[in-house]
Amino acid sequence: MSRRSAFRGPEASLDEQIESYSVERVPDDKRWPIPAISLVLLGNATAMFFFSFGAQQTFLVGWPKMLIPIGYFFIGAIVIGALTMRMTSREGLSQGLISRGLGFGSRGAAIASFIYALNFIYYFLFEGTIVSHALAYYFDIPIDSIAGIGIFALIGLVTIAFVWRGMYAMSALQTWGFPLFVGLMVWALISLGSKHDVAGPGAWEATGLSGGAALMTAMSFANGQMIFQGLMATDYGRFASRHIRYRGTGTIMFLELVPMFTIIFLGAMLGSTLIGEFGAEKAQDPGFVFVHLMGLAGVAFVVITQIRINVMNLYGGSITLASGVDAVSGYRPGRPWWMFAIWLFGVIFYATNVINHLGTFLAITGVLTNTWVLILLADYFVCRRWLGLGRSEDIEFREGEVREWNPCGLTSLAVAVGIGALGIFEVYPTYYASFIAMFVGPIIHVALTTATKGRYYTPAVTR
């Protein structure tokens, strides 16, 4: 394999590129090399969100205590990503499709798909909001004005054009987009050094009491990201070779996380440097930070970076919505059209200021997403591969070949989410909610699947 071909996907028709096997298996001859998958994932690794995340962790617990949640995030994401990617690459199925066979049923999996889609809608909204902030600071356009909403909507539509051809379009975008990101990031750091006394790790201090509650809040935020980043990588990992080993899937995760954690630490440095002059809210807002450091070039930096990450949010969201709606109704308008649904929800949520409820949203999606993913892993690795309660290869997903509703996964998810909801409603501390739910769900699922001897994997026998 030549160096150039290692960073490119296989030949594919235009229809194959556009649909990206959203409702079927990825054929063995359409798999991608590890470097090519890692190139696409660079867009996610350098998202503006992680500048905010790094500053947020610093303001919660400071240095060096922030290394605890960040270390947990790093190690956990590699483990979760390696496991889920190994599972989806062997099967060539998206998370939505594989959920049909792994404990939820052909229609029950739609619930999981819609849970997953919520994450992409939120991150599409978050990244787009950062662009609106940058334009508001530079051009004095009110964020919640008609003009602000229009700018958000317009840039979102432009982004759709960049991802119409799926993985192939994203690969081309990251080929030129990542070097441009690096160049602009260097410019921003030079500007930071010329305008401010840069805060080293010793000056990365918490802004409040950094006791046990603050640490657990930081851990809770890291926990949600750990699962989601590992999960998001599998949308692309399903294109990896069916015979890839854990070393290969772990390598893909490692190559994504190294630049991601570089951004997290840069976010901590930027936030700690600017907080004294501008306050915590602006210091952790990339839309303000880069406009302050670079002026109009900062606006361009934010816009380009937002497009590089939001192509992935649109792609991932369209894959999971295509699978979910297909499971419920059999309706297949084509994957690209679901990107417009993600865009429309994003515009509506932007106009109604859903972004102001960040903490509540992350708590809810953390409980839902974490529990679902851990149930999938428990089903595949424990119920099937260890206990032998169902087939461990060529997991069935087609309607008529699996139950419409598998009560084992659905009951486990419902009970665990119910327990997590008690935390969200502050019956117990909210920061425990995602941890408790993600452990309770898989335990119940394994118990139920074992008790029923795996009979809900296959359709009911008609007499």
UniProtKB/TrEMBL annotation:
The keyword Membrane applies. It comes from the Bacteria. One of its GO terms (cellular component) is plasma membrane. The chain crosses the membrane at residues 34-54, 66-83, 104-125, 145-164, 176-193, 213-233, 254-275, 287-305, 337-355, 361-383, 404-425, 431-448. The keyword Transmembrane helix applies. One of its GO terms (molecular function) is cytosine transmembrane transporter activity. InterPro entries: CodB. Keywords: Membrane, Transmembrane, Transmembrane helix. This is Allantoin permease. It comes from Aeromicrobium endophyticum. The lineage of its organism: Bacteria, Bacillati, Actinomycetota, Actinomycetes, Propionibacteriales.
